[in-house]
Amino acid sequence: MPLIAVALASALSALPDIAWERERSEDAHQLTLCQIHRDQLMDRAESMDTHQQAKAVCDLLAREYRQKWDFDAHDALATQAVDIDELVRRGDAVEVPPGKADYVFD
């Protein structure tokens, strides 16, 4: 029985951390509720000042959500990454020749 517990614990420890998915869904839910409330204020013909405040809050939440969870922007940054040859060419990295210990079949 203890062997099964060890195997189960090791299998569960290898599971990926999905806390970011929960956080992203909470942020999306908060943004959606804000937009619904903003639209209800507009439909009820509330004062224009109240509607403008709700619109400003929703715009702020939308900007934060896009900045934090926009994977296209993250992918664009990743494609701008430089390779090692470019770093050596610019002088930001130094190419080191392999030593004798680096060769396996000598």
Provide an overview of this structure.
It is a single chain. By secondary structure, the protein is mostly helical. The chain has a domain at 20-69. The protein contains five helices and no strands. It is elongated.
Query: What is the succession of H and E elements?
Result: HHHHH
Strand content: under 5%
Number of strands: 0
Mean pLDDT: 76
Radius of gyration: 26 Å
Helix content: over 70%
Number of helices: 5
Poorly predicted ranges: none
* Largest sheet features: none
C-alpha end-to-end distance:
48 Å
Judged by helices, strands and strand pairing, the structural class is mainly alpha
Shape: elongated
Question: Keyphrases for this structure?
Answer:
106 residues; mainly alpha
